[in-house]
Amino acid sequence: MLTKRIIPCLDCDLQVPEGRVVKGVEFKQIKYAGEPAELAKKYYEDGADEIVFLDITASHERRGTMAHVIEKVTEEVFTPICVGGGIRKVEDYVNMLKAGADKCSTNTAAIHNPELINDASEVVGSQACVIGIDAKRRYVDNPKDAPNKNVYESDKGFCWFDCSIYGGREFTGIDAIEWAIECEKRGAGEILLTSMDRDGTKEGYDTTLTKAINNAIDIPVIASGGGGNPEDIYNVFKQTDVNAALAASIFHFNEYPVPVVKKYLNDKGINVRF
What we know:
The chain is an alpha/beta fold. It has eleven helices and 13 strands.
């Protein structure tokens, strides 16, 4: 049985030079959650399997990456780190890895220029090329009304999943499942999948979305959006075959520290690393 990964996510902006960690609900209602280096060190000491840093305003503000923040973090943190936000060209991947990151996550730039995935995976390797997919449910009265074949039935009706860009500020009309398949073909090594409908709600992961994408591709999928307690993380592992679960609020505000989550999962028969 493969070990499941538990990954804290630090949504960051550069409202202050050293960066700050923030958390919202459905990509809105942003509030302060801490300082990047301090939180990352805590998660490293707590035994997090990886740490994800997402610069949530870089694409929208059309600015560069937060490499200086990652350089500071990696002075004392030796957990694998994935960084997203402002990664627009292969040079950005290279520079961020030089700053200490192990992987780079791209969303907006990859949708605008899918060839970036091919180019980046050739230069830095597919293992360092993560694609972020921020997907939102779009409901239709009839499956035939959907713009694609990937339609799912839920308690609210039929829906498909629409990819967003610029930190959830714009929608593309691109089907999330088809986009994940294309990303894998182009050389992506992992998908960071966020349900916009569940983000920050603590209502549990969108297992319909998660299962659909995980079943469509062979590369690892990180489930994100909606983790409110250890049971939610257990459920996403039991109901889907994802490799990792990402959460933010429950870790940032010390509701359920990483060791507590791992013990709960281990007691429930989920293979985790201590």
